[in-house]
């Protein structure tokens, strides 16, 4: 009988249920369900609709049942840094505010009063991003101290969904490191740091590694979806899963996990937390088997997503790429990592204003706007490649681009030109694949990550651009 494994991968822009199974020695994927994810405004804050997302998780499970494809195991990954605080009855305290919300404004100073940036980076290896969980928790402490008083558990978003499915609360390592509260050396919660910040240490429960069994479905979930299933922890941070599925045959490679964010970096068994890496804002996120993802967050295709939404989705992403290509010689460039692009009221107006302020031609057409973004992204990738090579002292021959953004052919071409590197494109569903690989390693389909990566290499077509 065919054995299926189910990855539920929820990015900031969309989620999907992907079944994986072995077929003639190749990993085969079937997307059974896809749904949108959007930020919502709640009590004047940008929030996630967790209820709606959980309903979508259940909807996709029901489709597996309808198709009579009952997975042996399943696991959920999502974007990082966001979390819930649960009270004694397992209920969420307050709204689930999203990382793009402005509640963290000024929280870096509050944290900075208690611990220096250098010290924080040394302890955690995590880059300073104003939306890191540490700053979000500081905002909760300032604005809603009662939530922290009442909280019994701290869970990251995928942990919370696993809890709703199984009734078990289980914090996963790769995503926990993005809180900036995990110690780089001990690879466990940094309780001293929590004391320093006056965060209640008892809400941060034991951290578990990918491949841990969370449990089986609760009775009410079995009744609703029509089957039981074992929940196995993948790398619950989507980027952690994506990097697992990079089909490189070489030890040293640069990846670009391209989606709402562009995450560019390397995988390493040792962290990079020198003054140089701190100055250039490289992070060391925790990975499978305690690997590190030393990478940089670049604003990414969020900017294109915003424009598409503003245009009421009149253009597809392919069309936006095509229009950008037609406006290829439009000369203006943006600092894509500028704060102003994190959550603007109007991305179109913000880009126009940025060009005006920097005395550059103001984009007028959709093509000019998109060209401006794609060119600026490609240029920032090139700068990052140089920084990575300086950081590691290694010259890399190629870059692997994975994720939904690897569909953007025009951006891939610009990246090849700007970096002068060989570009390997795909797989598009790297995150879901990485999620599946861990479940399949747990079930002994693969005996190691090397084995699993090799299977990805043979199973999916990888396009090469020179
Ligand atoms: P996330 O997981 O962060 O939600 P994805 O990895 O699904 O994001 O990538 C979504 C992005 O990929 C879109 O915002 C879009 O810019 C880009 N994209 C997807 N399909 C295409 C396409 N056919 N052409 C160009 N860009 C695309
Ligand atoms: C990408 C991602 C990224 C984080 C950001 C919050 O989806 O997980 O790795 O930095 O979202």
Automatic annotation (TrEMBL):
The keyword Kinase applies. It comes from the Bacteria. Pfam families: FGGY_C, FGGY_N. Gene3D superfamilies: 3.30.420.40. The keyword Iron does not apply. GO terms for cellular component: cytosol. This is Rhamnulokinase. It comes from Mobilitalea sibirica.
């Amino acid at each position: 009988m065919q054995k299926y494994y189910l990855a539920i991968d929820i990015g900031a822009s969309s989620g999907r249920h992907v079944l994986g199974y072995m077929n003639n020695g190749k990993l085969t994927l079937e997307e059974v369900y896809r749904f949108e994810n959007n930020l919502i405004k709640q009590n004047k804050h940008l929030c996630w609709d967790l209820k709606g997302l959980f309903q979508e998780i259940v909807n996709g499970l029901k489709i597996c049942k309808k198709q009579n494809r009952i997975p042996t195991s399943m696991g959920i990954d999502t974007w990082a840094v966001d979390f819930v605080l649960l009270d004694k009855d397992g209920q969420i305290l307050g709204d689930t505010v999203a990382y793009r919300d402005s509640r963290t404004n000024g929280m870096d100073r509050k944290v900075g009063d208690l611990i220096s940036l250098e010290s924080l980076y040394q302890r955690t290896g995590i880059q300073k991003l104003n939306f890191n969980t540490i700053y979000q928790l500081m905002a909760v402490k300032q604005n809603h101290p009662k939530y922290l008083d009442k909280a019994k558990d701290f869970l990251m978003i995928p942990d919370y969904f696993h809890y709703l499915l199984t009734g078990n609360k289980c914090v996963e390592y790769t995503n926990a490191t993005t809180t900036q509260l995990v110690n780089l050396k001990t690879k466990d919660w940094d309780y001293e740091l929590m004391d320093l910040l006056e965060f209640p240490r008892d809400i941060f429960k034991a951290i578990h590694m990918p491949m841990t069994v969370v449990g089986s479905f609760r009775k009410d979930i079995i009744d609703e979806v029509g089957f039981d299933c074992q929940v196995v922890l993948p790398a619950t941070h989507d980027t952690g899963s994506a990097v697992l599925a990079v089909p490189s045959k070489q030890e040293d490679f640069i990846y670009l996990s391209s989606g709402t964010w562009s995450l560019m970096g390397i995988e390493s068994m040792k962290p990079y937390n020198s003054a140089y890496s701190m100055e250039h804002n490289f992070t060391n996120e925790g990975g499978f088997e305690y690997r590190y993802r030393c990478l940089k967050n670049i604003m990414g295709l969020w900017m294109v997503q915003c424009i598409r939404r503003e245009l009421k989705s009149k253009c597809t992403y392919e069309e936006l790429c095509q229009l950008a290509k037609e406006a290829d010689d439009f000369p203006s460039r943006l600092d894509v990592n500028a704060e102003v692009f994190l959550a603007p009221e109007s991305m179109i107006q913000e880009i126009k204003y940025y060009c005006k302020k920097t005395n550059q031609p103001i984009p007028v057409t959709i093509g000019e706007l998109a060209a401006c973004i794609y060119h600026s992204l490609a240029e920032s990738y090139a700068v990052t490649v140089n920084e990575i090579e300086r950081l590691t002292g290694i010259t890399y021959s190629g870059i692997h681009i994975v994720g939904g953004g690897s569909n953007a052919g025009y951006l891939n071409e610009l990246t090849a030109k700007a970096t002068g590197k060989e570009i390997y494109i795909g797989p598009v569903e790297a995150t879901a694949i990485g999620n599946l690989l861990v479940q399949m390693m747990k079930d002994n389909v693969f005996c190691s990550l090397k084995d699993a990566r090799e299977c990805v290499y043979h199973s999916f077509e990888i396009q090469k651009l020179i």
